[in-house]
Amino acid sequence: MAILKIARMGHPVLRRRAEPVADPTDPEIHGLLADMLETLDDIGGVGLAAPQVHVSLRVVIFEVPERRVGPDAVVPMTALINPVIEPLDDTMLLGWESCLSVPGLTGMVPRHARIRYSGRTPRGDRLERIAEGFHARVVQHECDHLDGILYPMRMTDLSLLAFSDELRHGVPEPKETDLAIEPVAEHSEE
């Protein structure tokens, strides 16, 4: 296992659509997942996509830790290969997000409130879940990486993009035009 270098915004691997994985049970995929888990553990984030470690494959890992959502909404570390996301309604929520590939910044990002996601596990089994709240936000954020999308590209109000350490001075409020999207106080650090 190894701690991998994180690609930062501007690197070409983060701008292109990642390739599907032909065989989720391939030992090379298992090695990649082990390295991604070690890298994420070292950094202390909640999710990581393969393109972020310079591998253009449709692979993500994520968790929803108790410190973020309380004991009833925890999602254990999950590896998802070739994920597909389906919004379950038109409700969007605004929430703070950060990204390992956009270090030092955080932004208010609209995301679907409820989604269904599916994909393959490293054993090749089909995994399908319904997600809402922080869980849905994390999955959408990580899967965006597979399509060459970073969270600032989803933002509707760039005045709500800030250096993370500057938020100690107070959190900016969304403009009236954004109030149709319910503001939430989530802060997602990958």
Structural overview:
- This protein has 190 residues and is α+β, with helices and mostly antiparallel strands.
- It has helices at residues 27-43, 66-69, 133-145; strands at residues 47-49, 59-64, 75-87, 92-99, 102-112, 114-120, 126-132, 161-163, 182-188.
- The chain has a 5-stranded antiparallel β-sheet. Strands 8-5-4-9 form a 4-stranded mixed β-sheet.
- A hairpin with a 5-residue loop joins strand 6 (114-120) and strand 7.
- It is globular.
- It starts with 26 loop residues before the first helix and ends with a strand.
The amount of beta strand, in percent, is: 25-35%
Q: What oligomeric state do these chains adopt? A: single chain
Number of helices: 3
Gyration radius, to the nearest Å? 16 Å
Low-confidence stretches: 176-188
User: What is the H-and-E element order?
Assistant: HEEHEEEEEHEE
Shape: globular
- Which range best describes the helical content: under 10%, 10-25%, 25-40%, 40-55%, 55-70% or over 70%? 10-25%
- C-alpha termini separation: 20 Å
Task: Write down the overall mean pLDDT.
Answer: 91
Q: Write out the strand line-up for the largest beta sheet, numbering strands in chain order.
A: 1-2-3-6-7
Largest sheet: 5 strands, antiparallel
Structural class: alpha+beta
Q: What is the number of beta strands?
A: 9
